[in-house]
Structure formats: C-alpha cells, structure tokens
Amino acid sequence: MTPRPQLQTGYYRHYKNLNYEVIDVVRHSETTEWMVLYRAQYGDFGLWVRPYDMFFEQVIVNGETVPRFAWVGPAE
C-alpha cells in the first residue's frame, strides 16, 4: 500500500469559487486509493470525497493553469 499522503487541513476554494473544508484523507475500501474528505461550506454542507491526485491537480481555466482547489487558511 502507498504511504499516507501529506495533507493540509482547513479551508480551500474550488476554481469555480466555491468554498470547502478539508477534513482528512481516507482510503477507498476496494482500491485502497487515497481520497480527500471534505465538506461544502454552502447549501446542505454535504460531505464529499475526491481522489487525492485529482483534488490537488491543476486545471485550465480561460487558458490559465490554476489549482483545482487552492488552500485559503486553517479551519476555525
């Protein structure tokens, strides 16, 4: 199994300008892939998971490369 990846918990902003609180990394029960567990800071404040590599990848927005999620600050 791959070692637990580093993760800075706290608030992140999605490139579509929505805010989330990153809680921790978790493993997928079937594949053992590392996933990021995070909570929306809007609407029903639902919990979400996304593959770790996808969470931290770069995306192209209007011809500019930006992080999919950018760290904003620590959780309160």
Automatic annotation (TrEMBL):
It comes from the Bacteria. InterPro entries: DUF1653-like_dom (IPR023387), DUF1653-like_dom_sf (IPR037135). Residues 10-70 form the DUF1653 domain. This is DUF1653 domain-containing protein.
